[in-house]
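Need tokens for this chain, all 149 residues.
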Amino acid sequence: MRAINPVDERLDPYGALRATLGFSVVEGTSLAESNAGYLTVEWISDGCCATVRLEGEVDIASVDQVRAAAREARDHTGVLHLTVDCEKLDFLDSSGVKALLEAHESFGGRVALLKPRRVVTRVFEVTGLDQMFTFADSAEHARELIHDM
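Here are the structure tokens for all 149 residues:
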């Protein structure tokens, strides 16, 4: 994973805007660009639950960023629960689904998808995987669902 400085506009064209708005990276950030689009991945932990935030498109060209973030969040924090913030996720292909299944397995089956858009939930519905994952409309709801598993 290539770590970036959010203010470096060569690596992140929105970095200056994020810095102006007070955006800060808590733990780890990466930016992957493919022909199809972009993906920004960040992860944070509150000591109980790790959260991986996905913004953009997860496809075969960017999926390794998702895997690396989930692995780093698990290895560096030791938490047992994972929330994947999908609110700004525009696209998810089968490689992204596989990466989320891998995260599901490595976190002991305690994974919640936070605020997924219809384009994302549809992928899980079509594949029947909507029964494996917990879907939440807020971070608090995700924590409640994870702890009730």
